[in-house]
Design brief:
The structure is a single chain. Strands 15-14-11-10-9-8-17 form a 7-stranded mixed sheet, covered by helices on one side. It has a 6-stranded mixed sheet with strand order 5-4-3-2-1-16. Helix content is 38%, strand content 18%. The protein is globular, with a radius of gyration of 27 Å. The termini are far apart. The chain has 3 domains: 286 residues, Nitrilase/N-carbamoyl-D-aminoacid amidohydrolase (4-Layer Sandwich); 243 residues, 3-Layer(aba) Sandwich (Rossmann fold); 97 residues, Arc Repressor Mutant, subunit A (Orthogonal Bundle), CATH 1.10.10. β10, α4 and β11 form a beta-alpha-beta unit. With 660 residues, it is an alpha/beta fold. α6 crosses α7, α7 packs parallel to α10 and α17 packs across α19. The chain is built from 21 helices and 21 strands. Keywords: ATP-binding, Ligase, NAD, Nucleotide-binding. It catalyses: deamido-NAD(+) + L-glutamine + ATP + H2O = L-glutamate + AMP + diphosphate + NAD(+) + H(+). Pathway: Cofactor biosynthesis; NAD(+) biosynthesis; NAD(+) from deamido-NAD(+) (L-Gln route): step 1/1.
Length: 660
Amino acid sequence: MQLIKVTTAALNQTPLDWEGNVTHIQSAIAAARDQGASLICLPELCITGYGCEDAFLSVGVQQRALQVLLDLVPLTEGLVVSLGLPLFHGGALYNCACLIADQQILGFVAKNQLAGEGIHYEPRWFKPWDARQVSEIEIQGRSYPIGNLIFDCKGVRIGFEICEDAWASHRPAHALSQAAVDLILNPSASHFAFGKQEIRRRLVLESSRAYGVTYVYTNLLGNEAGRIIYDGAALIASSGKLLAEGRRLSFADVVLTTAIVDVDLTRMNRARLMSFQPQQAHLTANRVAVLFSFPDIEPETVQNKIPMWEHGPAVKEEEFARTIALALFDYLRKSRAKGFVISLSGGADSAAAAVLVWLLLKLGLDELGTEKFLSKLAYIERLAELKTAEQILPRLLTCMYQATRNSSETTEQAAASLAEALGAEYLRLDVDSIVEAYTDIVSEAVGRDLNWDEDDIALQNIQARVRAPGVWLVANVRDSLLLATSNRSEAAVGYTTMDGDTCGGLSPISGIDKAFLRRWLNWMCETGPRETGNLPVLDLINLQEPTAELRPQNAGQTDEQDLMPYDLLDWVERAAIRDKQAPVDLFRMARVEFPEYAPAQLEDWIERFFRLWSRNQWKRERYAPSFHVDDENLDPKTWCRFPILSGGFEQELSEMRDLL
């Protein structure tokens, strides 16, 4: 029986942070060594960070990454370690994994399948490697092989799939299996999306079963570069059995996941597979013989405890709470801002943003403890002197309620009560006089009094815009990040005021639809994460009908009257934008999905959506950076491209009207 202790390391890296990235890699190698591991798999492009974007094309970045690799080689005594970096070879740049054994570089495996859809743009920088080719690359006078290599460590064979390689139909695993590889390492930079972890589990389990291997999967962790969040997912499986699953969405810089692999058992299980036909193996030329023997170890039980929330009844709500809290924490410390400022309206959107900052603190303190948590924010003056969440939160979160004559007592009470319950600093400003001053100045300039019959939208917008300078001023005074509070449903139809509720340097909820946000706030009110508990004060928010409160109170303004029911709006958005359904087809589907509404009403709402969608692309282009949390994002910079000027679906809408 040959046993190998295998470790994955999820790392919270930052693009081009050479010192920080190296420190995390060194910590991972040292911790894995302390645990008795002999094989360590680190994430894709962990040396540079995955999100370097066009900086990958800098010769200086490429050269520095290679030098960092060489500097790390001496740390691998007695270990096998995989490291990811960009590598320039033959006139092209490749996304590579380097395998090092006992202080010797063995070779480089280049990624075959590049991620080029959704938020990923790898083909902009990298070339895909031709799986049939093996080449030599010279580094400081020495030649190393590069290609789809098989590393033979005195009989233990190791191969690679790099992230997207495993998700493609023509994946390296098939050829590796036929070549009797024992372990396949998958260093990844796989972005977080709701429900994706279950897909990963199936991928890793089925890969290990179908190919008769031990499959080792690791991932990046945290908000690496601003928009994309990595959950640090780590999975180790053998012959269809899950050996270990790592903790996700950790606030730590390094998270190890370890398993004991029985190489002989894996081989015996592979020998039983009808699909295993070793005589078909054609990768002999790709094999790299290694004078390294894995040390003999005794059987032991390795504990990898998975939090209960991973399999609970509210996984999506839990994922949202933990993902955005971690993303905000990383954004705060990596941008070196000194806190957050939110224009708290008393409604659902700004309440959600404030609660997420509260979760950042509560979850971070629970996992890291006060000392370690505050050490990550050591650049904030005098923060380290504080001891409790109640002392820390008002330093990190300032909430402002800005009233006009159209604001209600209900929303003001909700905003004040929420800020108090969270422990945030609370400021109240009355901006009605500023609204009136602008209205009077413009009325005089245009030669008539502005009024609600003729100037409805303009009079609504000036109230929202007047709130921006004050909250920006407070954010500047506090050297803090101003959080915009517009959601994805509003982004779809432009139901937001540019330079009003969209003002901010970061928009943490603009990737989330309003229907889910309201459901999540109810969950936070009643349940919440185990580590934090619930927030009953959110009842004051949840019982309200969503309203912008920009028209006079006697108008009874509500969001759904201005737009359409939110559940319908979100369904239309997905069908129209994600699934690219034409208006006429969408109308036919809507009559089946929403029989409670009259066909004429559905037609009116669908037409309203397409007109507003087309008219407001310019607004989506101007949104502050947002977090990507699902595969239905509307961010034109990372996911959903649409022309600013277009025909607006006029012909298609005419065809839909003809059905009535």
